[in-house]
Design a protein that fits this description.
The protein is α/β, with parallel strands linked by helices and about 260 residues long. The protein is built from six helices and ten strands, in the order βββαββαβααβαβαββ.
């Protein structure tokens, strides 16, 4: 039960069976992991309001990859933050795993975000004083709280070590961010995003701060882990080559998403 009194639905993504055409086997209709309708978000600038999202629609499905492109300042990060429950839209509907999030309290949104959504940012956002291992552990420590952490610490540390090892950081776990390369920092950020085993992996310019060769390596990792774990991968990017690898591509133009590409 969430803070609004509504019961959170089960994790199943399947809906009721649709009617099949004659001679065809019945198929389960796909239910979106996330469904956004008429999202509006603006910011006050003096006496005026700058409308960044102007009635944005999008459905995201389990296991697919989606790229969102657009010029600088078009609102891509605002959209990603709204979809990922870091920001609340001014109006519209945003349903994540069957839960209408716009009516949730701040704490309920935080719990749903921590459970369902992983983030990878352009500038890593690692804690300078923490090792790679402790940075990766941070979301789970916050999620379980200090009392439960005592009992779960060993299990969670093993999980974090396994993720960092999988991402090629087996010999770098004790290093702090200042001792890591840009690509290594982004690997730590990916491990951190995966720690809670999210269903949505949202990436805001994940290769924008890396050289070309390292960008390709990080892109390969993101697509690899999303396929292996059946994540819904959302990439905000200026990189047309990276966007071309996604199953679907959108351009954010004048506050709305426009599909493009095959």
């Amino acid at each position: 039960m969430n803070d609004t009194g509504a019961v959170l639905p089960a994790d199943s993504d399947s809906g009721p069976t649709s009617m099949a055409s004659a001679g065809e086997a019945p198929q389960e209709p796909r239910e979106p992991v996330l469904s956004a309708r008429n999202l509006v978000r603006g910011y006050r600038m003096g006496e005026q309001t700058l409308e960044v999202l102007a009635g944005t629609h999008v459905d995201l499905y389990a296991g697919e990859s989606v790229a969102i492109m657009g010029r600088s300042g078009s609102g891509k990060s605002t959209l990603l933050h709204s979809l990922g429950l870091l920001d609340r839209p001014d109006s519209g509907s945003l349903v994540v795993h069957g839960v209408e999030t716009t009516t949730l309290t701040r704490s309920a949104r935080a719990r749903l975000r921590n459970k369902r959504i992983g983030y990878v940012f352009q500038f890593y956002h690692l804690i300078p004083e923490l090792s790679a291992l402790d940075n990766a552990l941070l979301p789970r420590r916050i999620e379980v709280g200090p009392l439960r952490w005592i009992g779960k610490q060993k299990e969670m540390r093993e999980h974090a070590r396994a993720l960092l090892d999988e991402l090629g950081l087996s010999t770098r776990m004790a290093h702090k961010p200042s001792q890591l390369s840009g690509g290594e920092r982004q690997r730590v950020a990916i491990a951190r995003a995966l720690m809670s085993e999210p269903t949505l992996l949202l990436c805001d310019e994940p290769t924008g701060n890396l050289d070309e060769r390292t960008s390709e390596v990080i892109a390969d990792l993101l697509f690899q882990v999303s396929v292996e774990r059946s994540h819904t991968l959302v990439l905000v990017t200026h990189d047309s080559d990276l966007a071309a690898r996604a199953d679907r591509r959108f351009q954010l133009h004048e506050g709305k998403l426009e599909a493009f590409g095959a």
